[in-house]
Amino acid sequence: MLFDSILGNIVGVVVALVTITIAYFKWKYQFWKRHNVPYFEPTIPFGTSIPPFSKRKIGAGLLAKQQYEEMKARGWKHGGLFTWLTPTYFVTDLDYVRNILTKDFQHFVDRGMYVNEKDDPLSGHLFNIEGQKWRNMRMKLSPTFTSGKMKMMFNTLLECVPSFLVKIESDRVNKNPIDIKEVLGCLTTDIIGSCAFGLECNSFKEENAPFRENGRKFFDFTKSRIIKSMISSNFPAVGKFLGFGITPPDVTEFFMKVVEDTVKYRESNNIVRKDFMQLLIDIKNNKLVAEEGVKQDGTTLTMRELAAQSFVFFVAGFETSSTTMTFAMYELARQPEIQERLREEINTVLAKHGGKVTYDAIQEMKYMDTVINETLRMYPPVPVLFRKCVKDYKVPDQDVVIKKGVKILIPILGIHYDKDHYPNPEKFDPERFNDVNKSKRHNYAHLPFGEGPRNCIGMRFGLMQSKVGLTYLLKNYKFTVNKKTIQPLKLKVHAFIPAVEGDVWLDAEKV
């Protein structure tokens, strides 16, 4: 009898808790209705933004693209989503996108990313940090990405090319299909390692070179990492309490040691290089020179902060550029007429520069620009862009106020495939980006690097190394798609930066 009574009480408590939980979810899921924003009906407990891990069939970029298309079909300029209990403001109107990224940027300064510098020191980098800390860091790092600094680093970049060409030639001679993403990843790893750290990464000489291996590990999003990331991004206090970090511990250990050893060696031996690492060392020691145009406000960097900035430059620089070049080479291999036109431009421009690949030469390659821009349209390295509302914002021409703390999602992939902006969007057509066609489109219809004060700081560097890689490939070889490539391409579901199932394999023939 006593047991039955206890059991009955337990059941009653459980039923009450479940009822309260469901009621709380239903109340939270009325958020967008209360704020007069049209929204997709969420389901308990996952909301509308991200299906359960086991049910994911497509990546976050393609999911956002589908949601964008559905909102456009309903005539919505914006809409509401939920990621679990977290409301997300989803933007489809390009004027609204412009307002958020640029015109009314002061309301949307932060990205709303999870940062846990205690347990994951490499997470405290420029892409993630917020508020005044971000402003100070952005101001101090900007001088290293000017066109003048790019030109200065150009010869260092070119020193990484010979090993790259040896690998391509070896595969050609041995009639091996070329895993173009892997080869280009080795190239960009060596370039970033040299230009950022002043170190030789030896990605082509060592099968498991440490920089290359740790770069791969960072982008290998295992199931446990994704679950931790989902919990931390939606419940940051819980993530910090549990000590969740996004960077794998062995990757953190490797990069922290590399940075500490590099800084110690340079300072002990009075070595000064004109590279990214030197700028960070100067900030650490408050030694920025006046000609850089940087305000010396007395703030410095800790070793952890210095390592975090170096880390994001490395992982963002090698992966996004190698991905962009991979997709460009795939499309060029499929369309030999476009490949040949680009090759002709390369040869014509280089002939004007004595046959040498120079910084000025690649800046003259206008058709190259259109090819890369079209690649970035079809395969943006970051398919969705996030912001966070930092103070209440009245949406122009709407009876809507976006409340402080709400996350903002801008569906870059959806915008890039919108037929209103790009007719026949599945077709690879560089002519979309000639001067005439560009002038006909909204300025915010192409957002591979974001826009506004918080756009990609390394854009110039990424474009520079992508142009160099494509130039050397196409001036020496003709490429076709190898039968090992699975077509049509299928993107990996859980990749943070778009990656292809089965990889992209090409055949090379000497020009």
TrEMBL record:
It is a peripheral membrane protein. The chain crosses the membrane at residues 6-25. It is found in: Endoplasmic reticulum membrane; Microsome membrane. It comes from the Eukaryota. Pfam families: p450. InterPro entries: Cyt_P450 (IPR001128), Cyt_P450_CS (IPR017972), Cyt_P450_E_grp-I (IPR002401), Cyt_P450_sf (IPR036396), Insect_CytP450_Detox (IPR050476). Gene3D superfamilies: Cytochrome P450. The keyword Cytoplasm does not apply. SUPFAM superfamilies: Cytochrome P450. Belongs to the cytochrome P450 family. This is Cytochrome P450.
